[in-house]
Amino acid sequence: MRIFVKAKPRAKHASVKRIEENRFEIAVRAAPQDGKANDAISRALAEYLDIARSRIRLIAGAGAKQKVFEIADSKDLLIK
């Protein structure tokens, strides 16, 4: 399953907002340097979906605000 994310690094408050079934807006406090914001986004997404972070892989948009993550073994995943 692919998850499309609009990233908001350096936010005052961290949040995960579901826009559509597989689209999210994720705000993180981390700066977009050295992959810190990407790590924080994948952590927030894993926590929101209640899955292991190791199941989430960034496949596009490492240096952009629009990102695409792939969830491994997503057959058992129910998005809240």
Would you write up a description of this structure?
The protein is an alpha+beta fold and 80 residues long. The protein has one domain (2-74): 2-Layer Sandwich (Conserved Hypothetical Protein Mth637, Chain: A). It is built from 1 helix and 5 strands; from the N terminus they run E-E-E-H-E-E. Strands 2-3-1-5-4 form a 5-stranded mixed β-sheet, covered by helices on one side. The protein is globular. The mean pLDDT is 93.
Which features does this protein show?
about 80 residues; alpha+beta; Conserved Hypothetical Protein Mth637, Chain: A; five-stranded mixed β-sheet; 1 helix
Short description:
With about 80 residues, this protein is α+β, with helices and mostly antiparallel strands. About 20% of the residues lie in helices and about 35% in strands.
Describe the secondary-structure layout:
Elements: E1 2-8, E2 15-20, E3 23-27, H1 36-49, E4 56-60, E5 66-71
Parallel strand pairs: 1-3
Antiparallel strand pairs: 1-5, 2-3, 4-5
The biggest sheet amounts to: 5 strands, mixed
The radius of gyration is 11 Å
Strand order of the largest sheet: 2-3-1-5-4
Domain count: the total is: 1
What is the CATH C level class, in words?
Alpha Beta
Structural class: alpha+beta
Beta-strand share of residues: 35-45%
Uncertain spans:
none
Count of runs of 4 or more consecutive helical residues? 1
Mean pLDDT level = 93
